[in-house]
Structure formats: C-alpha cells, structure tokens
Amino acid sequence: MPPSSSSRRHTLTHGISTPNFLAELPPQYTVDTESPQNPVARRRLSHPPRYSNATALELQRQGSSSGQDSTCQHQHEFHIMNTNRSHAWTTLRIFSRNAGSTPQFFGRDFISGSVELDLEKPQKINSITLYLRGRIITSSLEEGSYTFLDHAVDIWNKDVGDPRAAHAGGKRFDEKLDGKYRWPFNFAFPSEFTIPSHGGQISHSFQTPQTFHERGLNATLEYELFLHINHGMFRGSSKLHVGVAYVPNITPAPSSPLRRRAYLEGVSLSGPGEDYAGWYSLHPVILQGEMSGRSGVEFRCILSLANPLTYTRGTVLPCFMNIEANDQKVLDTFANAKIIRVCLKRRISYTRNASLVLARFKANSRGKGSSLRQDEMTEIVEDVGQAVWWVPSNAAFYGPNVRCLEGEIHLPKNLYPSCMVPFLIVEYYVALSIDISDIFRFTSVGSHDSPIISQPVTIASFHGEGPLPVAFTAPPGKRASGLSSHRRAQSNTDVFPATLGPIRG
C-alpha cells in the first residue's frame, strides 16, 4: 500500500476560555493620578487586587487528578490522510489550554485525547504507540540534537486482543483492523526527566524546562507528540508528528504579611527598617575615591531586594537603596536615580554539542558537578530590566546622613523562567553599578562600568499564593521583546559576578 500523508486541523471546543500563555500571565493594575505631596509613593490603586483575583491564575492552571480539568478544553485534531488526501484514516485528537495552532500544557497538566481510526479497507496493524518527546537542538549536525525526554504510551497492540472486545487482555489478535476504532488516552506531562550517571547506577532528576525559541540564539528546545503505527515488516510505519508547548510550574513563596497587606490595600510598601521579613539586604558596599579634587571621599550603600528572591514574570521586582555619607554634598550627589544603576541581567548558557555534555554527565560519578560546563558553552549576557527609582514618603525616618530610594524593576511577561539543566542554563541576577565617571574616580571596589555587587534571583513562570505584586510606575514604553539590544557572547571561562552574603539588621 502506498505511504499515506499527514495533515492537521484544529477544532475549538468552547469551554472556559483560556488565552495563550503570554496573555495569561499576571496582569498589571492601574493607579490613580499622582498626588502633589508624593508623586509615587502614596499612590493607591484604582482597582486594588483582591485575594480571590490573585489566586485565580493558580486555580485556573491546576489540572484535576483525572486530567479532565475545564482549563484544558480546547480541542485540536491532526490527521493521517490516504494517498490522494481525500480521507483521514487516522485522527489524533488532543485537548489543551491553547486555542491556537499549537497545543500547550502547564506543569501538572494532563495530556488527554484519543486516537481514532476510520479504515475504508482492512489494514494490518501490529501496534499503536504515542510518544511525548523533548529535545534540545543547537545545530543541524547530528551531535547538535539530543532527546532528553522520551515518554511512551501504549495505545493498542495485537497482544492485548481484539480492540472491539468488551474486556482487554483477551486472546492475541492477528486479524486485520477494519472500520472505525477509538482509543482514549490520559497521562500527565512529566514535570521531571532523569539522566543516569556513573554507569547507570545513579539517576539525577531535573525539572522539565519550558519550550525555548528565541531569535538570535542557536538553541531550540522543543516538545512533540509522535504517533507511531506499526504495520509489520512488509510495510513502513505510519507516523504523525505534532509539536506542543510546555510551561513548567515555577512559583514564588508567599511574601511577608506586611507586603501582602500593602498589595491588598494598594498602599506603598514598608521599607527594610519596618518590614524585616520582607526584604533581603545585600552586604554593605563602601566606596572610596576622589571627587571634585577632594580625596578620601567615602560613601556607603545597601541594596535590598524583595524577599523571597523569586519573582513572577509579568510583575515587578521591588528594590530599596540606602545611601550613607557624612558629607551632605557627597550624599546629595550619589543619592540620584541617574547615578545608581540597578539592572536585572540574564545569562544563557548552552552547548553546541548536547549529546557530548550528557555523555560526560553520565560518566561523572558526582553527577551534578562541574560536568555541566565541561564542554564548550556559548554564553549570552544581557540586560532584561532596569530599576525605576523614587523617594519614599518616609525618607526622613532614616536620618539626616541617609538618603533612601525606593524602586522596582518591571519584568517582561515573556521572560524565560530560570532553568538549570545540563544542556541549557538560564540564570538571572540583579547587579548594582555606579555611573559617575565624570565627577568621581574610584580608588576601591572595581570600576563604574562593571557591577559592584550582584545577587542571583529566580524568575518564576506563575504567581503563587497571595495577592499579585503591584506596580507603582508605568513599564518602559519600548518593551517589544523584553530584552535589550545589547548582547555579548562569552566563553565559559568568564567569571559570574561575585555575590556577597546578606546582612540582617
């Protein structure tokens, strides 16, 4: 019999409408007009978020244990056609969250659907298997592709018996199939995958990463459902490939009680001096240098980030800066939002030879060690956000020799979440730098054009418990891709910015 061709058609079953995953990320809330007394810090929300609204996304994306949750009611159909493409003799029906052309699944979702046959004449079929596969592609060469996830689901095979029999497990079925058949399936999208190491005696698990496609990078991470119909040795197998998208379940821990209350009431956040549990303060940075012909100029700054250090994309990352100096002129010079630069940076590391990296990982008895970076790694470092600053309303509380800046970094909703797998590493860190080269010459702690201090953070894919973070400033106007135009490739010998430990009190 001549080989048949495959096609795809999509049918939408109207249930609870679920938009695509970029639009479904947490929304931004609007604010009222600025007050003349304090243009930013005392803003109140015109529509303060309610707790039920804050947890709606969490409830919406969770699948039920049976996999029949109402969030996965968009139907997709894909077909294998006969030779003249006049009849679909195989239909793969899938239910997912996405109404578009690509089925999409979130962490803890079930993949449900059915395999249906409509045979116009008898066919020899030995088995039907559905595979969920994930692979990393870094080049068109054979070593540039590696399948890290290969999950098989047996739909039917002749050893099970007659597919039309009332009970499975009957006599082996050696006849040809003819007419119409339907096999439902329902299985969880694996949230982890394993890699054996040390001769296969030890297995290490990693969180299944999100689908990754980004312009300008020679790395793609994709998933597909692969339907394989085995006809026996005298006829080639019938195959159907369907690309699917996946978003892992990464959520932040709950914020402090004071911060949750501020979000619910739509008021400004309490600073590190008031909300001890709500902030993570980095080690103080003491800078010395020359300014306006004066030597021995010194000032001290402490950068604090919202605690916990995990932030949902599409929201904001709150920041707080304390700047101390005995000289008022020095203090006024440095307590300037144009001078203090706090950025969210992203580093992506990937290999051009994924299979070699995993082979070394397997051979390493320590497992998750330096083997992750033994092969040549291409690294990209870029700015993905910059803090916007303002003077908090209670600045006088901190004393005459202290200046305070409150701020936030807007997180683009399409940021790729943090990822740590052997072949793709996506890391984020907040970096503090000082840009005053025209009026100040450093004599300690690096230079003005490199980070003085940095702190690794985690970017989450979804919001967790409690109200969503509230933005007090408008996001930057130009954020088409959420990334800066400046990118630089690095070798794997570059040093990740050093991180000093936190302080308390």
Summed up:
Pfam families: Arrestin_N. By secondary structure, the protein is mainly beta.
List its traits.
505 residues; Immunoglobulin-like; eight-stranded antiparallel beta sheet; seven-stranded mixed beta sheet; 5 helices; 7% helix; 41% strand
Set out the fold topology.
Elements lengths: L4 E6 L40 H4 L1 H6 L12 E8 L6 E9 L7 E3 L3 E14 L3 E11 L7 E13 L19 E12 L3 E6 L4 E6 L12 E11 L7 E10 L9 H9 L13 E4 L2 E7 L2 E13 L3 E3 L3 E9 L3 H7 L5 E12 L2 H10 L13 E10 L1 E3 L11 E9 L8 E3 L2 E11 L5 E3 L10 E8 L27 E3 L11 E2 L2
Parallel strand pairs: 4-12, 16-25
Antiparallel strand pairs: 1-2, 2-3, 3-5, 5-8, 6-7, 6-11, 9-10, 11-12, 13-15, 13-27, 14-15, 14-24, 15-17, 17-21, 18-19, 18-23, 19-26, 20-21, 22-23, 23-25
Report the count of strand segments. 27
Mean pLDDT: 77
Under CATH at level 1, the class of the largest domain stands as: Mainly Beta
- Major beta sheet summary: 8 strands, antiparallel
Structural class by secondary-structure content: mainly beta
Gross geometry? elongated
CATH architecture verdict of the largest domain: Sandwich
Give the proportion of residues in helices: under 10%
Low-confidence stretches: 8-70, 367-372, 478-505
Number of domains: 2
**What oligomeric arrangement do these chains adopt?**
single chain
Radius of gyration using CA atoms only? 28 Å
Protein name: Arrestin-like N-terminal domain-containing protein
Pfam families: Arrestin_N (PF00339)
